[in-house]
Amino acid sequence: MPKFLHTADWQIGRQYGRFPADDAAALAEARFTAVEKLAQLATDHAVDAVLVAGDIFDAQGVSERTLRRVFMALEAYRGPWLLLPGNHDAAVPESVWHRAQRLGIVPPHVHVLLQPGATEFPQLSLAVLATPLTQRQTVTDVSNVFDTLSSSAGLVRVGLAHGSVTGVLDDDIDSGNPIAADRAERAGLDYLALGDWHGLKSINARTWYSGTPEPDRFKDNGAGQALLVDIPQPGAEPQVTPLAVAQYCWQEWQVTLHVPGDVHALCERLAALPPPAVLALQVRGEINLADEQRLQTAVATAQARHRCVEFDRRGLRLVPTPNDLASLQATGYMGDVIEELRNLQEQADGEVATEALAILAGLLREQQEGSAPCS
Fold first, then answer.
1. Which residues, including other chains, have CB under 8 Å from residue 66's CB and lie 6 or more apart?
2. 72 neighbors 110 (Cβ within 8 angstroms)
3. Where are the alpha helices (DSSP H) in 239-316?
């Protein structure tokens, strides 16, 4: 009886405009690496097929090089790949799929499911019922077709669809395209493999979202995996096992500093973050100049170790202590400037004042270090 890999939302060709160019390029490349990892997992686990529930490509207009790279990556696993058009790569009249077919780059073992219907693999005891999207958004449930699709006796029935399960994902959907929560039961499916939501989620024992194999958002939703699905016989409950795929771990931290010890805890947390990661760090609260220097060093070290560390310090207010000022030897005019910047932090231009205070403190430290006698 069939054992297969369920994956979705590869989003090949996705752009990462919020990141610096080198980080954006690496994150885009990681999506190709994810496909290679999926092929390796399919081989290692000796699956009978790989089912991809839509949004293989992020847009219809990806380059020919990108197209060729994807289909070349699929050569690494020689079993059947079943690719379903989603909302980003819908089966419109002139789609990315038609371009690939005209280029002659779709391998024989790769099945592009451009029409609703059942594809049977009797030797695998598997029937895959597909409902591709033919436009970016629909208002009707395209999975209705599963209720009317028949399959040969003795075959495990697996549905492949892309959309939002009604009443479950309304706040998290990438598009419309409703799917009934009880579709598997209505259509007599042994398993319903879904795409569109980028996190891993079980709707019920027979209906799952695999999520994207490489995270692309700061959400703690189980992204970065694929699902190994084993169905012992028709009617049996699927045995579903998540498999890790992702190269980068995406995390979003929002930290408020209340006491000096909070800075030490944050620095330790940064040091313990397993590389490589993509981190969005937002820090609020008050910090003295000595701790601000420690935090800057910890962030700079993390930025060197990880793929990307965004540091948002707009909610961080610098409050120099008497020891800070003494260590900077900021007397006279410089002491007055520091005091003025401290006051400006409370006003509308507080962010600029905070940055200026940090720069001034850094310059004073550098001046002290440069004038220090050699030992």
1. 12, 13, 57
2. no
3. 260-272, 289-305
Query: What letter would DSSP give residue 373?
Result: P
Output helix, strand, coil percentages for the chain, rounded to the nearest 5: 35, 25, 40
CB atoms within 10 A of CB 241: 12
In a 10 Å sphere around its CB, with 0-12 CB exposed, 13-18 middle and 19+ buried, how is residue 244 labelled? exposed
* Dihedrals phi, psi of 156, to nearest 5 degrees: -70, 130
What domains does the chain contain, in order, with CATH numbers?
3-244 (3.60.21.10), 249-371 (no CATH)
Per-residue pLDDT of the chain (375 residues; tens, 9 = 90+): 899 999 999 999 999 999 999 999 999 999 999 999 999 999 999 999 999 999 999 999 999 999 999 999 999 999 999 999 999 999 999 999 999 999 999 999 999 999 999 999 999 999 999 999 999 988 899 999 999 999 999 999 999 999 999 888 655 454 579 999 999 999 999 999 999 999 999 999 999 999 999 999 999 999 999 999 999 999 999 999 999 999 999 999 999 999 989 999 999 999 999 999 999 999 999 998 889 889 999 999 999 999 999 999 989 888 777 677 677 666 677 778 877 877 887 776 677 877 777 777 777 767 766 655 443
